[in-house]
Write a structure and sequence with these properties.
With 71 residues, the chain is mainly beta. The chain is built from no helices and five strands. It comes from Streptosporangium sandarakinum.
């Protein structure tokens, strides 16, 4: 898995009834775009360091504007 700042990380719910989590990648820890990523989660006021598992995928090129700092 490789990503760029501004890509969306989508994590599918692992259990029945568990919703999908969507976040914007705001920082890379490796220059080649490999995990882990710092992700700002939609609907949350926090960022977290994420080591994506098999239930996650990246949507390249989406959400890049959201990755910019708020004015």
């Amino acid at each position: 898995m490789k990503a760029q700042v501004g890509d969306r990380l989508i994590v599918e719910g692992a259990h029945t009834g568990e919703g999908r989590r969507i976040g914007v990648i705001v920082e890379l820890r490796h220059p080649g775009g490999e995990p882990p990523y710092v992700v700002r989660w939609e609907g949350a006021e926090h960022e977290s360091l994420v080591f994506p598992g098999p239930d996650a995928h990246v949507e390249a090129g989406r959400g890049r504007e959201a990755a910019l700092p708020a004015p």
